[in-house]
Specification:
- By secondary structure, this protein is an alpha+beta fold.
- Among the domains are: 146 residues, 2-Layer Sandwich (Beta Polymerase, domain 2), CATH 3.30.460; 69 residues, no CATH class.
- Helices cover 48% and strands 15% of the residues.
- The protein contains twelve helices and eleven strands.
- The protein has a five-stranded mixed sheet with strand order 3-4-2-1-5, with helices on both faces. Strands 10-6-11 form a three-stranded antiparallel sheet.
- Strand 7 and strand 8 form a beta hairpin.
């Protein structure tokens, strides 16, 4: 069930902090909520809620940030959504609209997804956009959004959102660490650094989501983590121990990119992955389930080699592994590293939550 360690006083104190962020941002643009409310209603029509979303809500907007809205109307909105673009008073504003019934249905599905086991949660997040016009990106913005009347009408759904987003980021971090191990075993350098960077980003986002700090845009992950630490929100919580660990990983990654790595990155990244799971993994260990893609055909090629033909074609010198695989410090990756890595990259081998 949803149980992230939300900051003390949430959501009331969080709602107040978000409102201060919004007012500070608007004041810096020479705007205020009342004037913006009148402008948006004049340009886009009446709405039940006009939600300001994204970086201004989280207090990380900059001079180039757009002003993004979600409009929740009093009637159904039909068809595929396309954001309305407005340029007023030197500002770029964007608004996308939804009806009350589809918002209610999406929030009910979010609550149902958050109550699933980790595999179910991760699969629900991954398949969300196929079944909802209110896409993941906008679902997160809806829950976090601050209305121009000063309320946060959907913030009560943050615990459910946090658990779903946390497990998605945990799964992505596991995938990156698994790929990192394979890339290093296959002798790759730049590729392994890329996987290490992805792992660090998603480890930080998983920790933040576990704490109820949810935001989908990857470019803000590390800044959000640093601001989270600077705010003291991690003090006295198990997340505090991750500050030095993430910093150490960042140093190792920097050294690798400069060609100064003292050794492989995978052991340290695997160790921190286990630490994050110990804090946020609800008793589960990092693992994957490997499954050959259903649309791939294996054809004989030369003695000791085969060709996998699907969306792409690739050569294989061994057998592709199947089934659950632990992604821990003490477990070697299965199969030939180069074959498994190539099969995963091409889509011939699927890395699923386990």
């Amino acid at each position: 069930m949803p149980n992230p360690t939300l900051p003390p006083g949430a959501p009331e104190q969080l709602a107040a902090a978000r409102l201060r962020n919004v007012d500070t941002f608007l004041a810096g643009r020479g705007l205020d909520r009342g004037g913006l409310d009148a402008l948006m209603r004049a340009k886009t029509g009446e709405a039940r809620h006009l939600l300001l979303t994204s970086s201004p809500v989280h207090g990380i907007a900059n001079s180039t940030s757009d002003i993004d809205f979600i409009r929740v109307e009093d009637h159904a909105v039909e068809g595929a959504r396309m954001a309305t673009q407005l340029f007023e008073q030197g500002q770029h504003l964007e608004a996308v609209s939804y009806g009350p019934d589809e918002v209610a249905a999406a929030l009910a599905d979010l609550s149902a997804a958050a109550a699933l086991d980790p595999v179910g949660v991760t699969e629900a997040h991954r398949g969300w956009d196929k079944g909802h016009e209110l896409r993941r990106k906008y679902l997160e913005r809806l829950v976090n959004g601050v209305a121009l009347d000063g309320t946060s009408p959907y913030l009560e759904h943050l615990p459910a959102l946090a658990r779903v987003w946390k497990w998605s980021s945990l799964h992505t971090a596991v995938r990156h660490v698994f790929h990192l191990r394979l890339a290093e075993a296959a002798g790759e350098t730049r590729g392994s650094a890329g996987y290490a960077f992805g792992a660090l980003l998603h480890l930080a986002d998983a920790a933040l989501s576990h704490a109820g700090d949810v935001y989908s845009n990857r470019k803000w992950y590390l800044l959000r983590w640093q601001r989270f630490l600077d705010s003291g929100a991690a003090d006295g919580t198990p997340l505090a121990q991750l500050a030095e660990r993430f910093t150490a990983l960042d140093r190792l990654l920097g050294a690798a990119l400069r060609g100064e790595a003292a050794g492989p990155l995978a052991p340290e990244f695997g160790a921190v992955l286990e630490e994050v799971f110990a804090i946020a993994g609800e008793g589960h260990a990092p693992a994957l389930r490997l499954e050959p893609a259903a649309d791939v055909t294996r054809l004989p090629f030369l003695p000791g080699a085969a060709m996998l033909v699907g969306r792409t074609a690739q050569f294989l010198t061994g057998e592709l592994p199947k089934g659950p695989v632990a992604v821990t410090r003490d477990t070697a990756p299965p199969g030939g590293a180069a074959d498994v890595l190539s099969a995963s990259r091409s889509g011939a081998l699927r890395l699923l939550p386990a």
